[in-house]
Structure formats: structure tokens, C-alpha cells
Amino acid sequence: MKTQNTMRIMAMTAMAVLVLSSCGTKQAKEAEDLETVTKEEAFEGVTTYPIPTSFEVVQLINQAGASYILSICNPADNVSKYFTEKAKALNLGIYGADLAYSTTYQMKQETMNYLKTSKKLIDELNINTGFNRQLAERVDANIDNKDSLILIITDSFYDSYKYLVENGKDNLSLMVITGSWVEGVYITSQIAITSRNNTEFVKILANQKAPLAKLVELMQARSAEPEIAELVNTLKPIVDIYNGVQGETLTNEQFEAIVENITKIRNSLV
């Protein structure tokens, strides 16, 4: 398990395996103290990205030899149809995963397209950080340097999450994370369907149990909020499936159920 700082360093060479990490010493201590503080207080203390970013699952997909499939991603043109804060935040997470996918595979045009859509949603959600204001320029200057590009975009994920939490926009931060997680699992599941040997992809999917559990734990701290309660209900079918997953394997029934339900959930969000 990697700490947050270790994940940043690893981004310069290759992102680590997508499993639930402690996200650093700070998060480990928060887990130990959980029984002595309220869930609300525990959530408010998590100002660093609480689960690994979508770059990690994408890196595993890449290492397993899967080809880039453009049609899997949420079309960039869809950005114009998101009007509510909830839709914008969820799809910022979804587009963030699509951006990670295109960047890792060095698809320059797609990277720029998803950067543009992500920047539009960042601006509309008023995620006004110095890093994000310079994001487009940083990406443009490093478009031919994959390792630097991954680091820049990963830092933007961290920066945006921290900004939302520190500025009392906890609900939006959870929506962004949810969108990113859903899209990462959706991309993996779609590749697994078409792969001749999907053993590695099934393992990636099985390892999503712990990150999902962490995400739901954070949502429970905000479950009194209608939008978060609705999102918890949206994820419930996939949560129920993962509750029965043991280790790094899936039964055929579990695999088919994950594919079916993550597709329904993802399509309902985009």
C-alpha cells in the first residue's frame, strides 16, 4: 500500500496497482481515531484524496496489454448537457477518468478534448485554485511528456479535492470521486468483456471492493443530505455485489452482475 506522497513519485514512472491505500500516515491515524469522533468530524478531516485516482486502474489496463478504445469514454460533446451542480460534479469525475485513460495511452487529441471539458466543469463549479488556473498551460507545455503529464493531472485531482473539502463543498467532492470511481470500473469492465483472456481485468475489478467501501463510508457521514442519500441509493446494487466478493477473484455470476450494474449506473450519470 502506498502513501499519498509515494503515489505522486510513482506517477513519474508508472502508477501503482489500484487497491485501497491508507492514503498516508494521516489517513491511517484518522482510521484509528474513528471510534472517538463522529463520522462528520472524520469526513471533515480527510483533506487529501481518500482513494487512489483513476490513473492507477488505467495503468493496470495498459500494462495488461489492452488497446485504447475511444468509444468507451463519455463523449466530450456531452459536457454541454450538464446543468446542475450534481451532474457537473459527477461528470467532472467521469471526464477525469477519461482524461487519465487518454493521457496514459498518449492519445493527444483525446487528452486535449477531455482536458477542455474538465476545465469547463472546474470553472463552472468554481474550483478556483492557482494550480487549476494554470492547468491548461501546464498540460500544453508537457503534451509530449507522458510522465510529467500524468503527474500534472494527478496533482490537479488532489488540488481540486482539497479545495472542495476546505471550502465546505464536501458533497461536491464526494460526487467527483464517485464519478471517477464509476468510470474507472466501467472502462475496466468493458475491456474485460472483449478481452480473450480477462483474468487480469477481473482481478482489477475484484480489487475495487475496498475503495468502494471507503467511498461509501465517507458518504455515510453526509447521508442526511438528499443528494448524497440519492447517490448512496444509486450505488447500492454494486455495493451489494461487492459485499460478496472475496479476495482478488470473481465468480462468473459476480462478474456478470458487476458489468450489468456498473453499466446501468454509469449510463444514468452521463
Radius of gyration: 17 Å
The portion of residues forming beta strands comes to under 5%
Report the end-to-end length measured between terminal Cα atoms: 32 Å
Extract low-pLDDT stretches. 1-47
Average pLDDT taken over every residue: 78
Summarize the biggest pleated sheet: none
Number of domains: 1
Summary?
The protein has 270 residues and is mostly helical. It has 14 helices and no strands.
What does it look like?
By secondary structure, the protein is an all-alpha fold. The chain has one domain (54-64, 74-269). It is 67% helix and 0% strand. The protein has 14 helices and no strands. The protein has helices spanning 4-10, 25-32, 39-44, 54-63, 85-104, 108-124, 130-133, 135-141, 146-166, 170-194, 199-206, 209-220, 226-242, 252-269. α5 crosses α10 (170-194). The chain is globular. The two termini are 32 Å apart. The model is unreliable at 1-47 (pLDDT under 50).
